[in-house]
Amino acid sequence: MPVTDVQHDLDNLTLTITADFAAPVARVWQVYADPRQLEKVWGPPTYPATVVEHDLRPGGRVTYFMTGPEGDKHAGYWLVTAVNEPSDFSFEDGFADLDFTPNPNLPVSQNVYSFAAHDGGTRATYVGTYASAEALQQVLDMGVVEGASLAINQIDELLAA
């Protein structure tokens, strides 16, 4: 399994997930740069993602929805703030209504996804920072650690294909 460590820090308002992949940095980068690859791994297996809009440039926007086993849909968005291909990108990640209007009742996180060569492959570090300990606790209670881990653990299969 690629996920090797998960840390949540209520004092620093962060959730950090570390994963190791047996593929070069440029190949792991493509998982996020290509919307068709991203939608294979963004949601957990029982909530596959459909990427609607994908503009991975500073100021760009990525919109998506995940479809649950009962056909229920859950939308979200990224507002891309920085891109340093292939080493890292930063974005605001939020929940949205099905028309991709941000949902103000759910937490927003500021994220940095970074990729570095490590042991002949790639170490990915995913850091989300929340506005408050309550916001971080809310997503922890919603199962973000389990859902993100299941999603990230799908990347190996995609890389091997």
- Proportion of strand residues: 35-45%
Q: Any idea of the CATH topology? A: Alpha-D-Glucose-1,6-Bisphosphate, Chain A, domain 4
Please tally the β strands and state the result: 8
Low-confidence stretches: none
Characterize the structure shown:
It is built from 5 helices and 8 strands. The chain has 161 residues and is α+β, with helices and mostly antiparallel strands. It has a single domain, classed as Alpha-D-Glucose-1,6-Bisphosphate, Chain A, domain 4, CATH 3.30.530.20. The protein has an 8-stranded antiparallel β-sheet. The chain starts with a strand and ends with a helix. The model has no long low-confidence stretch (mean pLDDT 96).
Chart the SSEs and their pairings.
Blueprint: E1 3-9, E2 14-21, H1 25-33, H2 35-41, E3 49-54, E4 61-67, E5 73-84, E6 88-96, E7 108-118, E8 121-130, H3 133-141, H4 144-152, H5 155-160
Antiparallel strand pairs: 1-2, 2-8, 3-4, 4-5, 5-6, 6-7, 7-8
Helix pairs in contact: 1-2
Task: List the keywords.
161 residues; alpha+beta; Alpha-D-Glucose-1,6-Bisphosphate, Chain A, domain 4; eight-stranded antiparallel β-sheet; 8 strands
Can I get a quick summary?
25% of the residues lie in helices and 43% in strands. It has five helices and eight strands. It starts with a strand and ends with a helix.
